[in-house]
Amino acid sequence: MKRFYKQASVAPEEGGHGVRLDGRPIRTPGRALLVAPTLELAEHIAQEWADQGEEIDPATMRLTGLANAAIDIVAPDPAKFAAGIAAYGESDLLCYRANGPDALVARQSASWDPLLEWAGRRYDITFNSVAGIMHVPQPPATLDRLCTAVTSHSPFILAGLSPLVSLTGSLVASLALIEGAFDSPAIWDACQLDELWQTEMWGEDALATQILAQKRAEFDDCGNFCRLVGR
């Protein structure tokens, strides 16, 4: 799409702050007004539009895309959307450990145990872990409380949380990130530990490195989106 506007700006709207192009409000693909819950998020979305060149590239506008998803996809039925995210608690990455070598087992324990311990304290829950990839059931109370934790968040947070869980493979780590319990680099390194280990053992693959960088950029954008929404 060719750029059809000169200026992007922010204006107060019912329920938050809207983004306008040459004074006209932006609408989502579902034709709803794009209204951000915080001024800071609206300003960052407006900046995405202002930074576009002669042609609009949606791939460079992740905050806009997440806001659209929050309004068009999540908001109509937040509970159903949250339940889909919470299902990841049944097979969280952090609960599946390597059988060996000992150095990898130790590294996983050092990176993953603090996250599980945080969740245990935060939600008063316990986890079952296993060495290997065979499914291990989690206590029903754990799954219920994780579902409650996810459901408590707003549609905008849920829109950012969903891709975070997909990118990391861990509901626990993603909740820790959006709640500010651990910083972003620590969460990313923990959830990419196995991939980093493989690189150390066998060397770097150019394509894999490129894909990982793309995932990292998306991870950072989603984390930033949740931060701009606020807790």
In words, what does this structure look like?
It is a single chain. With 231 residues, the protein is α+β, with helices and mostly antiparallel strands. Helices cover 57% and strands 9% of the residues. The chain contains 10 helices and 6 strands; from the N terminus they run E-E-E-E-H-H-H-E-H-E-H-H-H-H-H-H. The strands form 2 sheets. Strands 1, 2, 3 and 4 form a 4-stranded antiparallel sheet that branches. It is globular, with a radius of gyration of 20 Å. The two termini are 34 Å apart.
Give the topology, please.
Blueprint: E1 8-13, E2 16-21, E3 24-25, E4 35-36, H1 39-50, H2 62-74, H3 78-86, E5 96-97, H4 102-123, E6 130-131, H5 140-151, H6 155-168, H7 171-178, H8 184-191, H9 193-202, H10 206-229
Parallel strand pairs: 5-6
Antiparallel strand pairs: 1-2, 2-3, 2-4
Main attributes?
231 residues; alpha+beta; four-stranded antiparallel β-sheet; 9% strand
Class inferred from helices and paired strands? alpha+beta
Tally of DSSP β-strands? 6
Shape: globular
H/E element order: EEEEHHHEHEHHHHHH
Quick summary of this structure?
With 231 residues, the chain is α+β, with helices and mostly antiparallel strands. The protein has helices at 39-50, 62-74, 78-86, 102-123, 140-151, 155-168, 171-178, 184-191, 193-202, 206-229; strands at residues 8-13, 16-21, 24-25, 35-36, 96-97, 130-131. The strands form 2 sheets. Strands 1, 2, 3 and 4 form a 4-stranded antiparallel beta sheet that branches. A two-stranded parallel ribbon has the order 5-6.
